[in-house]
Amino acid sequence: MSRKDQMVKSVFMVTILSILGKITGFFRETVIAAYYGAGGASDTYFVAYTLPSVLFSIVGASMGIIFVPMYVERLKEHQKAAQKFSSSIISITIIITSILSIVGMIFSKYVVMFIAPGFKDQALNTTIHLTKIMFPMFIFISLSYIITGVLQSHESFLVPAIISVPSNIVIILSVILFSREYGIYALGWGTMLGAVSQILIQLPAVKGKLDYRFCVELDDPSIRSYWYLLVPVILGTAVDKVNIMVDKMLASSLMVGSISAINYSTRLLDFAGSVCTGAIIAVVYPNFANMSANEDYKKLTHTTYSAVIGISQIIIPVTAAAIMLNKDIVRFVFERGAFEEQHTNLTAYAFSYYALGLWAMGIREVLNRVFYSLDDTSTPMKISIFAMVLNIGLNILLVKNMGIGGLGLATAISSTAAVLFLLHLLRKRMEHFKLRAFLKEGLKIVLVVFIMLYGMLVFRSYVPMDNFNIKFLSSAAIGFVIYMSLSWYFGIGIFGSIKGRDNQQGNVCIEGMEFNNDAPVSVIIPCYMCSDTIARAVHSVWYQTWRPREVILIEDCSPDDGATRDMLHYLMYVYPNNWIKIVTLNKNGGPGNGRNMGWDFATQEYIAFLDADDAWHPQKIEVQLKLMLKNPHIILSGHSYELVKGGFNDFYTIYTLEYFKSLKVDFIKNKKMLLSNQLPTSSVMLKGRDIDERFDNKKFYSEDYLLWLNIMLSGHKGMRIDMPLYYVYEGHRRDGLSSSLWKMQKGEIETYKIVWRKGFINGFVLVILEMVSYIKYIRRLTIEGMTYIIKRFK
Fold first, then answer.
1. Which whole-number Å values give the CA distances from 576 to 461, 526, 586, in the listed order?
2. Are strands 580-584 and 606-609 parallel, antiparallel or unpaired?
3. Pair 140, 198: CB distance under 8 Å
4. Going by C-beta distance under 8 Å and a sequence separation of 6 or more, which residues neighbour residue 614?
5. Distance CA 432, CA 427 (A)
6. Where are the beta strands (DSSP E) in 509-574?
7. How far apart are CA 710 and CA 628, in angstroms?
8. 676 near 704, Cβ under 8 Å?
9. What letter does residue 691 receive in the DSSP assignment?
């Protein structure tokens, strides 16, 4: 099993186990509510739990986060170095957390009086006793985070994923068995023992990976570095807690129930966020650390991209469904007993705005860990402080008019701004991190989400159901099926990776094939108003390492007073006799007509197309023809291109025989080809004798895309080589076709309609493809507009 497959399997298993933990957590809350209700006893417990929970959620979690990359780095050096490092960190953690716990227990009275100044007499005394019971949790939870870090660094993810299960079971049993005799203290001791169980369940798994010996190596540079890096993470995490506190402070001045609505909303979002992102983060973070330790930044970039796309693919539809079904979700989860309809409405209002930030919260966790793996903890801290300031400002601005919804919207905006800044900084730091690819995949996800929402809306509008629970669950199920089906059909995100395994032939060795300077290829070049570029194009063909046997130049009736025609005849005179053939047309019939005419005159088995203002890499024919000869079932092939500033290349990348030993070939799937044209015309080579289809002479735009689709959808096989084997010159950008964005858009839509009329696709797919096409058009228009503005103001 490949490393990527192993990661996907781990994410799946951790997700399942995390959901199991959340289910047992739900039963824990249900049991606590059933035995203690919402009275004074439960209030004393929740107040006593406040400070220990804040400490281990900020300090303990931060210790585990910083531990992973530093432990992995030591592990790369030597097992003994990692053992020494982990033993020292655990020993120092025991000392510090024990001191803080003892101090907290001694001063528990003052802690409780600060947190709950309204508590008096019995409530105060009970809370003080519970605080003393539960404060040592800080020790065990902090150690649990570090042990989890050890296991994850060794790619052992399953046990850490279920540590909450025994903890929840211990609490449930403590309440059921001992609450009658010991009251609320049974819950306090159960919580304390549950924290201990989180360590105990991990001990068998960590055996052999962690050989603990008590030691305190304060002079070790790595130990000092650990504590130095830890401080910014603690501060950054604490800042997030401040945001929550500020929200509740402002909510206290709003209508009664606003604070509870925030609590319930954030609880729902925490559940969704942990299920959607927790497993992915748990699995990829140690891999981030490994790649950083090996200085494999290209792989780190790729894994980061995959993690961001994976989380986006899960969390965007969840966010959209949460906003659409906000009231139904709150009603389904909470509306019972004292939680009445007005509470549902208020909570749903807050929930819908807080949900807008769910994507940013998940992505931020991934990006933070990328920086942590690079030993940079200050950047996430600074971004967290920026987000906090922005959130507080937006809170004050929006709460006046929007109430509790303004608090949620402020959180969403500030979180999104933080993610955008992190992406920008990551792009500057990691040269291989390409935002364009992420935006392209993100647009596909958003499009499918809109279709999902439309399907859910139609279902809810036209399928009558009296039972609320059945209607809610059915709506969610319909949305899930639509989203998963379309994502699979179009190979979006992780589904593209899974399906890509079937499309990929693997490593193809073409080293042993003999060199041939007389390749059986006819090159067709339509020539229209190209007197200044055609010589460069023909020059690139002549200097091919596998030179084509003939070049066919189509003079397409250029209105330039014979300049193009004269240049073509000059080239025919310069190059050897009969290598260049010229076909002169009396009327301009468009690029498709010109290519068809050249096709009719071609004498070779393989046809290659080249636009007059592009040029080929010297090894284009060698690479492409070798691969087609090695894969005789391939009828159509293409490759990527490189944009060159100016009008000529300064240098070329020459691919060696060593490189050819493991060249990868990707077969093109019809569904992916339908989403976008995978084969630029100047990259295409095809077996001309095996193809009956031709370019549509009536189309001036997207005629090449229509032909490729006709070939592929008729059952022929195609491939794409991920090598830039031709060049597009920025100094000679086409002022005709490529600048006519709207005409290109209409051409693409017409292409889809022709394919539909031929019966290759159904009406539903046609509608989806048209929607995708318009989204791509808006994107192109935006990019062209921004490029124009930037050039004007330079």
1. 73, 20, 26
2. unpaired
3. yes
4. 537, 641, 682, 726, 727, 728, 729
5. 8
6. 519-527, 548-555
7. 20
8. no
9. -
Question: Measured between alpha carbons, how far is 598 from 69 in angstroms, rounded to an integer?
Answer: 60
What's the token pair of residue 291? 């790649």
Tokens of 40: 């004074």
Helix H or strand E encompassing 723: strand 717-729
User: In 667-723, which residue ranges form alpha helices assigned H by DSSP?
Assistant: 670-675, 703-713
pLDDT for res 57: 73
Residue among 74, 250, 257, 228 at smallest CA distance from 149: 74
Tens-place pLDDT, residues 270-292: 777 777 777 777 777 777 877 87
Q: Contact 675/705 with Cβ under 8 angstroms?
A: no
Instruction: Decide: 104 and 131 in contact? Cβ < 8 Å.
Output: yes
CA distances from 793 to 579, 789, 790 (A): 48, 6, 5
Residue 347 contacts residue 261 (beta carbons within 8 Å):
yes
Residue of 685 and 654 predicted with greater confidence = 685
With CA atoms as reference, report the closest residue to 246 among 398, 374, 77: 398
> Chain centroid to CA 728: how far?
30
Residue 47 CA, distance from chain mean position? 39
- Supply 274's token pair: 């942990």
Angle at 277 between CA 276 and CA 281, to 5 degrees: 155
Tell me the pLDDT tens digit for each residue of 396-426: 888 888 888 888 889 889 989 998 888 888 8
DSSP reduced 3-state for 434: coil
- The first and second tokens of residue 286, run together, are 């140690």
Cα distance between residue 400 and residue 31, in whole Å: 39
- 369-372 contact pairs (CB < 8 A, 24+): 369/65, 369/281, 369/284, 369/285, 369/288, 370/288, 370/300, 370/304, 370/426, 371/422, 371/426, 372/65, 372/66, 372/68, 372/69, 372/229, 372/233, 372/288
Helices (H), 201-220: 203-206
pLDDT in tens, 546-578: 899 999 999 988 888 889 999 999 998 888 888
**Given CA atoms 468, 469, 470, 472 in this order, what sign does their dihedral have?**
positive
Tokens of 470: 């059945």
- Integer angstrom CA distances of residue 627 from 507, 586, 607: 11, 38, 15
Using CA atoms, how far residue 195 sits from 61, 145, 234, 748, in Å, is: 14, 11, 21, 61
